[in-house]
């Protein structure tokens, strides 16, 4: 029997965009269902994946000399080169999306990148301008918690400062890399990151433990640690894990999604979600594939 769920809002994808948007919608009192084809990961799960990535794959040295690159394991993919391709860090589905395991790099789009057709004659311009988008980028940086300085001469304009100062350059960056760049006429600058340089909203500053992918201290932003616990306090919000969307059903005109057809990845049972409003937030690969 196919299970059917009805809700006001259905958010497809429990990653950084979907979870942040759900947090803003939750206070409205409207019913919200969030779907993701991956599970939730506990701190215990994170610790185990971190241990496996460091011990089993010798990732502390960044070279997996003791592993056979042609062998597929529960932690890696086959590779024709000499190094093992570690997938456990990079190819996870789960509540939190890519932000579960990203490095926290938070560069803004360049103004020129939004007008490639006008400026360079190829592709398509964005339907909105950078000026329209900029205030929302600022709000997102504040909500997520981004460390950065306005020292990049090539960065797009800002209407406000970063929530936190940038991380200091490492010894290598300041004493070796930056001087080498200067000799080449290249400007060295800091990189905005969703990693706390100082304590921010109850989360500690970076402990420099060199495990950004799983960040045991919680200094790097991850939706499941910051905003999902807030959503769990709302009775009108449901987060459904291990649900894979397979088809979007539209109205007769084809201009509005009216239902999402999905399956539970564990038992293959079918589920249909019908909603007044759908938000497709499945990332840069899954969103266009689904649409």
What labels would you give this structure?
291 residues; alpha/beta; FAD/NAD(P)-binding domain; two-stranded antiparallel ribbon; 25% helix; GMC_OxRdtase_N
Low-confidence stretches: 59-65
| Amount of beta strand | 15-25%
CATH class of the largest domain: Alpha Beta
Helix content estimate: 25-40%
Quickly give the CATH architecture of the largest domain. 3-Layer(bba) Sandwich
For the biggest sheet, the summary is: 6 strands, mixed
* Apparent shape: globular
CATH topology of the largest domain: FAD/NAD(P)-binding domain
Secondary structure tally, helices: 8
Topology, number of strands: 8
| Separation, N- and C-terminal Cα atoms | 27 Å
**Arithmetic mean pLDDT:** 87
Secondary-structure element order, N to C? EHEHEEHHHHHEEEEH
- In the residues, how many domains can be counted? 3
Radius of gyration: 21 Å
- CATH homology group of the largest domain: FAD/NAD(P)-binding domain
Helix- and strand-based class? Answer: alpha/beta
Strand order of the largest sheet: 5-2-1-8-7-6
Structure description:
- The longest helix is centred in the middle third of the chain and has 15 residues.
- This protein has eight helices and eight strands.
- It has a six-stranded mixed sheet, with helices on one face. Strands 3-4 form a two-stranded antiparallel sheet.
- It is globular and about 70 Å long.
- Helix content is 25%, strand content 17%.
- The protein is an alpha/beta fold.
- InterPro entries: FAD/NAD-bd_sf, GMC_OxRdtase_N, P2Ox-like.
- Its cofactor is FAD.
